[in-house]
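We include the pair:
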Amino acid sequence: MIRVVLPAHLRTLARIAGEVKLDVAGPVTQRSVLDALEASYPVLRGTIRDRDDGRRRAMVRFFACQEDLSHEPPDDPLPEAVTTGAEPYLIVGAMAGG
């Protein structure tokens, strides 16, 4: 069971309270977790990744085990602590301003 924490605006959009728990078949990678998340909550398609090319949206970051995974290859395995459910996979809305 993979635990995913979403930013408040995406939880509101998907009508989710708290963290999401997902079953991910096969290797646990960023791509497989996001595929499972979008399959369970279709309203999130296009909000985290671009619908056409699957790239991460510019104002979204991914973290696991206190590491920024935003620029890591999407098919690299996630840390064991995430795959065992000990730690969550975090999807964070980036902050910008001036």
Q: What stands out?
A: The chain has one domain: 2-93.
